[in-house]
Design brief:
alpha/beta, 18 strands, 41% helix
């Protein structure tokens, strides 16, 4: 059940929202313009408690008198900013306290039927105030698991004249035209649908007639067209979009049928015209092999499934081969029109509601570090010698609100080293982080090649005598390096400190987690039931080659 809290009459949003939301969804509405009251008591504001929550509001609806006073008398907006921050706090608390996903709109720039929108005496001040109030709202939400929909951006895209219906606003408190309500409802439904859908991880791109106009093998590095002048500016804009996505967690892979020396030369000689550089590339295959084979090889190299790839190419034959051989790869055809090339990343809407963690922002650098580790492993006399040479440190800690997004990512995407494969959304993880009955563990790992980021999670039900591990998972990037044993030892030590005498783990088999079927028996646990394993405390599994760091 999707609950909608709105400062205006939201009935026009319902049909398009349901059309875009996950199949089988239903909607219930709180009383309009009772935003504070509904957020303070979510469950009693609806006919039945919602499983998901949508919050839409306008500044002029919720804080009308204070806003009008500011517009007319130029009063001090400090109190208004604080009121908006408190509203953001209520939205964040609704997500964290009730454990349900929340989609919230940021408010548009205020409009009044009696105020000339081109009157610079007020319009400029309103634009400045709007930015301050949106900032206050977002600051109030903080790190709570709330997905934002930018209502102001949607309004700018459609235009105020086409978005607002003054008559219906005055009569029914229904300010949106039907076409704009259709657009907003659809966007809200897409935001709800994104909550359980993974974001693509890899943008695999062709080179010739994709990153630049022309064929480097025929035109030469100086002959291909790329730069500030049209048509090269369209390809440069596309590269800028790729760099933006790389800075927000996507991995860029270059897949080109070319001579490697030609590609290296164009990156070296045309750096002033290009935005993309070799530093932005997490992987590349420049050869004459099948692009489907090269995409599969890159997936293996990065430890990802091809279903997380988007492949961008100008050649219909190459795209068709990938479509047939790798049907789960999303395909994007590059146009012959430079202005359409410039808009490719703008139209990759699968990234629209992605939540970006600190690990996401340095993902490319971490992948490069992993390549160095593979080289070191290949040159080590044994796996034990390799582990000893790494200098692994594991920081085990209880995550806070700032880590909820990354912890949720791991819970929902980790398959191979995942003992139970229990999926949870951000709201559920936020509730566990603050639960008195549970303890959530997270682990950040570093070694001499750099950091892996936050790569392991455990969720423990802390009983009086028995601590039960409900979730234990770890990124495949740190497999067979002792991290799992370091975390298990920390859980066992904490259980002893709390007075427990037994640690219990469970294993739920899936098609992908067979490698951890013997995880608990291999560490001295005894089977006590179907998928359940117990061990008496204290525990002794700490790996000698790992330094464990705990917060005081």
């Amino acid at each position: 059940m999707i609950g909608i809290i709105a400062s205006f009459t939201p009935h026009l949003l319902v049909a398009p929202l349901l059309a875009a939301a996950p199949a089988g969804s239903e909607v219930c509405l709180a009383d309009f313009n009772q935003v504070h009251q509904s957020l303070l008591d979510v469950e009693s504001s609806f006919e039945q408690p919602p499983d998901q929550l949508v919050v839409c509001w306008r500044i002029e609806d919720v804080f009308g008198p204070a806003l009008v006073d500011w517009v007319v008398r130029e009063s001090d907006p400090v109190g208004l900013r604080e009121d908006v921050r408190q509203l953001g706090l209520l939205v964040g608390q609704a997500a964290a306290t009730h454990g349900i996903p929340v989609v919230a709109c940021t408010p548009p720039t205020p409009t009044f039927v009696w105020l000339d929108p081109l009157d610079a005496r007020s319009s400029v001040r309103l634009a400045v105030l709007h930015g301050q109030l949106v900032q206050a709202f977002v600051e109030g939400i903080g790190q709570a698991p709330v997905t934002l929909v930018d209502l102001a951006a949607l309004l700018q895209l459609h235009g105020t004249e086409r978005a607002y219906d003054s008559r219906n606003d005055l009569m029914y408190h229904q300010p949106l035209t039907r076409p704009f309500a259709q657009a907003l409802g659809t966007l809200l439904g897409e935001a709800l649908g994104s909550l359980g859908r993974p974001t693509p991880k890899v943008l695999a791109v062709d080179a010739d007639n994709t990153l630049w106009l022309g064929i480097v093998g025929e035109d030469g590095p100086d002959g291909v067209v790329i730069g500030d002048s049209f048509p090269g500016s369209g390809y440069r804009a596309f590269q800028q979009g790729l760099v933006y996505q790389a800075a927000h967690g996507a991995l860029i892979a270059l897949v080109s049928k070319n001579n490697a020396a030609d590609i290296e030369e164009i990156f070296a000689r045309r750096g002033g015209d290009m935005v993309l550089s070799s530093e932005h590339l997490a992987a590349q295959r420049v050869d004459w092999n099948s692009k489907a084979d090269n995409l599969s090889a890159i997936a293996d190299e990065l430890g990802l499934g091809v279903d997380s790839f988007v492949f961008i190419d100008d050649n219909d034959v190459e795209l068709d081969e990938v479509r047939q051989r790798l049907p789960h790869v999303d395909l994007v055809k590059v146009s012959d029109e430079p202005e359409e090339v410039a808009e490719i990343t703008r139209r990759l809407t699968a990234f629209r509601f992605a939540r970006v963690s600190g690990e996401d922002r340095v993902r490319t650098q971490m992948m490069k570090g992993e390549s160095d580790r593979r080289a070191a492993a290949a040159g080590a006399p044994s796996h034990a010698d390799f582990l000893a040479s790494l200098g692994i440190s594991v920081h085990v800690f209880e995550p806070g609100p700032a880590h909820v997004g990354r912890v949720t990512q791991l819970i929902n995407k980790t398959n191979q080293f995942n003992l139970t494969t229990v999926r949870r959304d951000e709201a559920a993880v936020a509730a566990l982080v603050t639960s008195q009955a549970h303890r959530v563990y997270a682990a950040e790992v570093t070694d001499r090649f750099g950091g892996y980021g936050l790569v392991a999670v455990a969720v423990v039900d802390c009983g009086i005598d028995v601590w039960e591990i409900e979730t234990l998972l770890m990124s495949c990037r740190v497999l067979r390096r002792g991290v799992e044993d370091a975390i298990l030892q920390c859980i066992g030590d904490d259980a002893v400190t709390a007075g427990a005498s037994k640690l219990r783990g469970s294993y739920r088999p899936t098609p992908k987690n067979g490698q951890v079927a013997a995880f608990y028996p291999d560490r001295g646990f005894t089977a006590t039931g179907e998928g359940l394993y117990d061990v008496s405390l204290p525990l002794s599994v700490a790996p000698e080659h790992v330094v464990v760091l705990r917060d005081a």
